[in-house]
Design brief:
The chain is α/β, with parallel strands linked by helices. It has a single domain, classed as Rossmann fold, CATH 3.40.50. Helices cover 47% and strands 17% of the residues. Strand 3, helix 4 and strand 4 form a beta-alpha-beta unit. Helix 1 crosses helix 6.
Length: 144
């Protein structure tokens, strides 16, 4: 999902794709906008994403206000709680949501399905690309 969004965004604006464990406060400070992409685990954002927000929240507080953001969540059932968690953190940073959250639901409900590698269908990857392209276009045109 993140790769699809980033590849589409590259056509419109400089784009950097980073995993949550690699990204830090300086990366947030350098960026003009953000697409937060996370899996939902046990009705919450994945631990690595929570760790990213924990490490970055206070060092950038008051320094990235009004920057645009969007989010994508991959969930096994509904993804709503992960979306709420990310939105709450973004509100604390005073970021500006520029697109509704995109939730891709895999419907993985059994232990085997949950632990299996996921393949996102092309139709849903197209939605990820559209989100990435829209974010980049908005930044490029100064809309955000």
């Amino acid at each position: 999902m993140a790769e699809a969004a980033a590849l589409a965004a590259e056509d419109e604006a400089p784009t950097i794709l980073m995993t949550a464990d690699q990204a830090g406060p300086n990366d947030l400070l350098k960026a003009d906008g953000y697409i937060f992409c996370a899996p939902e685990n046990l009705a919450a954002i994945a631990g690595v994403m929570k760790d990213f927000f924990d490490r970055c929240y206070y060092p950038v507080l008051g320094r990235i206000e009004a920057r645009p953001y969007a989010q994508m969540v991959c969930a096994g059932s509904d993804g709503e709680n992960a979306v709420r968690q990310i939105a709450r953190i973004a509100r604390g940073w005073r970021l500006k949501e520029v697109q509704p959250p995109l939730i891709i639901c895999t419907h993985a409900q059994t232990a085997e399905e949950i632990l299996a590698e996921k393949t996102i269908p092309e139709k849903q990857l197209t939605q990820c690309r559209e989100l990435g392209l829209a974010m980049a276009a908005g930044l490029s045109m100064g809309v955000f």
